[in-house]
Design brief:
- The structure is a single chain.
- With 187 residues, this protein is mainly beta.
- Strand 5 and strand 6 form a beta hairpin.
- The protein has one helix and nine strands.
- The two termini are 33 Å apart.
- It has a single domain, classed as Sandwich (Protocatechuate 3,4-Dioxygenase, subunit A), CATH 2.60.130.
Length: 187
Amino acid sequence: MRPLQTPSQTVGPFFKPALIRAGQESMATPKTRGERVTIDGRVLDGDSAAVSDAMIELWQANADGRYDHPDDSQEKLLDPDFHGFGRAATDEHGRFGFYTIKPGPVPGPGNLLQAPHINVCIFARGLLKRLVTRIYFPDEPLNITDAVLKTVAPERRSTLVARIDQPGILRFDILLQGENETVFFDV
């Protein structure tokens, strides 16, 4: 007898009551080392309508380029005041925001340095699994040689680079599908 399989289901929309806690969007404290940055954005569907019940997770290295994770064995400093993880829900207009630091470069394939970036996971109603992307920083010299960014078609790379809204505030909108869809990685 063959076992029955559970059918696939979309994720959500249970994020706000079950997984979001106040303060998770503030990743940096007054003691955290590094350049402060606010990341504001919106999650939009294929019709450019706001996705009001999405959850965004960020995971990043500290200002020295080290992750607060046991598998990161680099001899770079750990920052006891920075853990590199944040979570936020979108509001009724699809908006989200994070307060963090600019991460340092981390080793990539062949131990070449990757450009400073923030890893992003998007969970939303209608998705069968999370979407994964990255936020790169504008005017970052290492963007030119970043091994992951180089795998993206040149005309699509702009969907991964935040825009400067004003000093210290970056804008990063996530388009789930359609023209100018954000590049997502199959991980």
